[in-house]
Amino acid sequence: IDDLAMDVVWWEGPEFLKLNEEHWPKTELVEKKADEQLEEINVGSCVKPFDINSPVRSERWSNRKKLLRRVAYVRRFLCNCKVKTGRVLSPELEPDEWRAADEVMLRMCQRESFPDETAELESKGTVSKKSKILKLCPFKDENGVMRSKSRLEQVSWLHEDFKYPVILPTMHPYVDLIVKEAHEKFGHAIGKEATLYELGKK
Is the pTM of this model over 0.70? Predict the structure, then answer.
């Protein structure tokens, strides 16, 4: 502040402003000829578009519901950006938004745990005979989630999620969150069978 108070240029401007205009410094302007070719410079964008299917660090979360809420709101935002009318502005998430967020995480989990099988199902509709999940008769549902065919598909009254359970890896942070949620739902008082029952509903 003291230096600024003593700065004459700051308060009064440069000395040449006190002179007549004819004594001001001359600035030479270089005009570009019309027939001269301007140099073309290619500038690449450094902004990476966000992909809702890109990996989400589920190991950073200790609560599955909070993780899904974040994914659901991001997904809603991206969907709202694509439309001019009919945007969803409700502060509360709809049931289908929760389910869609879960499907995002399940697809990510499966891509990371079964990369070869995921690629094979997308390109060929079947997995290699060497696949460790071949016996599960894997297929992808209409939402891109990998599921297993079972004998229960013949039971007409059974829900589709029970007929065709989601294929989950043994070790994955998101699977850990699902198991943790199942245990907390019943006050940590359930055994292996009850936990598997809850997982079968995913």
Answer: no
